[in-house]
Automatic annotation (TrEMBL):
Region Disordered: start-end pairs: 335-355
Species in which this protein is naturally found: Oceanidesulfovibrio marinus
Domain Histidine kinase: 139-352
Database matches in Gene3D superfamilies: Histidine kinase-like ATPase, C-terminal domain, PAS domain
Protein's name in the database: PAS domain-containing sensor histidine kinase
UniProt entry keywords in alphabetical sequence: Kinase, Phosphoprotein, Transferase
UniProt xrefs under PROSITE patterns: HIS_KIN (PS50109)
GO molecular function: kinase activity
Length: 355
């Protein structure tokens, strides 16, 4: 008993109309027909005419033919017809409702003509979801900023009322941490921009010694209960205490803070954490060393997103530091062993200036 093969045209038509995305197809020189599938018609609220001569493909209503043929291709600005492009635009349904549509365009070379294929996906609900997510994040960011401001105010009150030097020092650190948290919340999109390579650095002269001294003081105070001694060594320059680097100061402070925090948390109790910065020809070198060791299974992905061996860690500190270093044209290297502990080195090249 022979098996009857499915007709190719039936298979193609079945696939054409069963696809959930809208499809719009026309040839380069056919001016009177634009073919669409059922999903396209539903997306825009139209009842599309159907052929009954075996093709079974939809054809746009005449009043839409000229608009589609003139407007959609122009959106892509296609000097090279073989080029594939995509975009997201707002379009209007028959009932005047606005929808957000993602469009992919491709070209297929047929026997006689170029075939333009457009795939349209209604992403209105995704756009709405993104809007609601952004609104929730805005509210959360606002509330956290309020708490951070409260910390600053309470710390300032303690500083004003206390005669105890240790209490005053701790309150100063709390006040500064609250201030830095507010700064970070104001620039929380930076992480996303760094990941996508779209971040534009705001360069200025950053006093690295002053920056690192403040971070070291903060973590020296918090690590005393574990007997950890945090040592910061700066290079003695002829002009005094300062080493300046032209970079994004807030981002660089995040970089140093992340690495020093990680080093303190990973250090065995009673051991020393050493932080240093120095100028070399054409770049600045920052290093932090502790006697902890990075587990061997994490070393290959240590500087990557969510790589952590901490029980409650997120794996973002070293990853964010790497992104910041790379945004400045630099890099982070590390060495880790049971004998020598762990050393991270950040190399930051001096920005090139035209003579």
């Amino acid at each position: 008993m022979s098996t009857q093969l499915l007709d190719t045209q039936i298979v193609v038509n079945g696939l054409f109309h069963s696809v959930k995305d809208g499809l719009l197809i026309y040839t380069e020189h056919s001016t009177d027909q634009v073919f669409v599938n059922n999903s396209f018609c539903t997306m825009f609220g139209y009842t599309c005419q159907l052929f009954h001569d075996g093709n079974h493909v939809g054809v746009l209503p005449p009043d839409l033919l000229q608009q589609v043929r003139e407007d959609i291709p122009s959106l892509f600005a296609l000097p090279n017809l073989a080029e594939q492009k995509s975009l997201v635009i707002s379009l209007t349904r028959k009932n005047a409702q606005n929808i957000k549509v993602a469009i992919e365009h491709g070209v297929f070379q047929g026997e006689k003509d170029l075939l333009h294929i457009f795939i349209l996906r209604d992403i209105t609900w995704l756009a709405l979801l993104e809007k609601r997510k952004n609104e929730a994040e805005r509210i959360l960011r606002h509330d956290i900023k309020n708490y951070a401001s409260n910390f600053e105010q309470l710390a300032a009150h303690i500083i004003a009322k206390s005669d105890n030097a240790n209490v005053t020092q701790a309150a100063e650190l709390i006040k500064e941490a609250g201030s830095k948290l507010n700064e970070l919340l104001d620039t929380d999109l930076d992480n996303f921009m760094l990941e996508t390579g779209k971040f534009q650095l705001s360069r200025s002269d950053c006093n690295l010694n002053k920056m690192l001294s403040g971070i070291a003081a903060q973590y020296s105070f918090s690590s005393r209960s574990r007997g950890i001694q945090l040592s910061y060594q700066h290079e003695e320059l002829n002009n005094g205490y300062d080493i300046y680097y032209e970079g994004d100061c807030l981002l660089l402070e995040r970089l140093f803070q992340n690495l020093i925090k990680n080093a303190v948390e990973a250090s065995p109790d009673g051991k020393k954490v050493e932080v240093a910065v120095e100028e070399q020809a054409g770049f600045v070198l920052f290093s932090v060393h502790n006697m902890g060791v990075i587990p061997e299974e994490f070393r290959s992905r240590f500087m990557h997103d969510h790589a952590t061996s901490k029980q409650n860690g997120h794996g973002l500190g070293a990853y964010t530091a790497r992104l910041i270093a790379e945004a400045h044209g630099g890099r982070i290297d590390f060495e880790s062993s049971e004998e020598s502990g762990t050393t991270l080195r950040v190399t930051l090249p001096r920005p090139h200036t035209e003579s």
